[in-house]
Every structure is written in structure tokens, then in C-alpha cells.
Amino acid sequence: MEAKVKEVVSTLLQHMKISGEIKVHTEDDIIFAEVKSDDMSLLIGKKGRNLNALQYITNIIINKGSEVKRRVFIDTEGYREKRVSNLRALAVETADRVKQAGKSFSLNPMSPSDRKIIHAALKEDGQIMTASEGEGRERRVVISLKTA
């Protein structure tokens, strides 16, 4: 399966006109593909959209017609880890603003995976609640104080 993932990612990168080295390994039934490229910004795209799209398409191709569905994660230069760290920091900073101002704050629209990170980051805060509002690409997280 790792060879197939490497082949699919390589083919998709060629279509994107991005050259890079791809290393693939499996942990706990999840296949990880790490791409090293001089075109990192193009590979990542705005807020990780290109990387997310590459991962989404790869998952569709890998799992098409397969009885056993495998999850593929694609990253480059630790982008996803940095993104998670930045989103968690944003969540905590915004929660602090909510506590100080006593009013709700709405974050910019985000992907479902980014919203999930925000919700998880604040789940244990007893003073704060989060909710997703809006539709489609305009869906965002609203952070507010819990009511008694």
C-alpha cells in the first residue's frame, strides 16, 4: 500500500508541476507521506488548502474499490504540526479575550479539520463554550462564555 501511495502522490505532484521527494511509512494502520520540495508554498497553498486537497484526492484514489479503507496523511516540512500549534494558540488567545471582554468572538471561516482543533483546544476550559456557525466555506467557530 505504501508503494501505491507514493505512486499516487508522485503522479499528482507531477500534474501540479511540483518536484519533490516523497517518503512513506505506516503507523497504526495510518499511512503517512512526507513530501520534501523546493515549492513548499505552492504545495501547501493558502492556509493549507492545496495540501488538504492533495491529501483528500490521494485518500479517494487509494481507497477506491478497496474493502479495507486506509487513511493517508500528507505533510511537508512539519506544516501540519505547526498549523495545529498555531490554531491551539489562537483558540487560547481568543478564549482569554472572551473572558476579559465578557462577549463572544467569531473566528474567520475555517476548514472542518481546523474547526475541530479549535473545539478540542477549548473543550476542557470550564468557562468557555464553542460552536460552529455558518454554511459551507463560511462556517466558523464562535467562542463564548458558558452560561450558568
Q: What value does the average pLDDT take?
A: 92
Q: Write down the overall geometry.
A: elongated
Domain unit count? 2
Number of helices, where a helix is a run of at least 4 consecutive DSSP H or I residues: 5
N- to C-terminal separation?
51 Å
Indicate the proportion of strand residues: 15-25%
Structural class: alpha+beta
Helix content: 40-55%
Going across the biggest sheet, name each strand in turn.
1-2-3
Main pleated sheet:
3 strands, mixed
CATH superfamily of the largest domain: K homology (KH) domain
Give me the count of strands: 6
CATH topology of the largest domain: GMP Synthetase, Chain A, domain 3
What sequence of helices (H) and strands (E) makes up the elements? HEEHHEHEHEE
Radius of gyration: 18 Å
Low-confidence parts, pLDDT < 50 over ≥5 residues? none
Q: Determine and state the CATH class of the largest domain.
A: Alpha Beta
CATH hierarchy: architecture of the largest domain: 2-Layer Sandwich
